Amino acid sequence: MVMPQGTCPECKAAIHVDEDADKGDTIECDECGATLRLVGLDPIELDLESDYDDEDEDYDDDYDDDDDDDRDRYY
């Protein structure tokens, strides 16, 4: 049986993906060591995990912008 395969966006190496892998799983590239996120299953699509880390931080920053003083008046 042929194992599904994608391409590392960093070094273009072939990345073998387990058949039971799920969208959102992370995989390490054996060639360059990049941490990759599985973003597509058919066809296999991989993105750099670091691209998603930045988005998570932006979301947290936006959430923290709420004015905490508003909560004090309800107590």
From TrEMBL:
Q: What domain of life does the UniProt record list for this protein's source?
A: Bacteria
Task: Locate the region Disordered.
Answer: 48-75
Q: Which InterPro entries match?
A: LysW (IPR005906)
State one Pfam family annotation. Zn_ribbon_LysW
Query: What's the name of the protein?
Result: Lysine biosynthesis protein LysW
Task: Please tell me the species this chain comes from.
Answer: Chloracidobacterium thermophilum (strain B)
Q: What is the lineage of its organism?
A: Bacteria, Pseudomonadati, Acidobacteriota, Terriglobia, Terriglobales
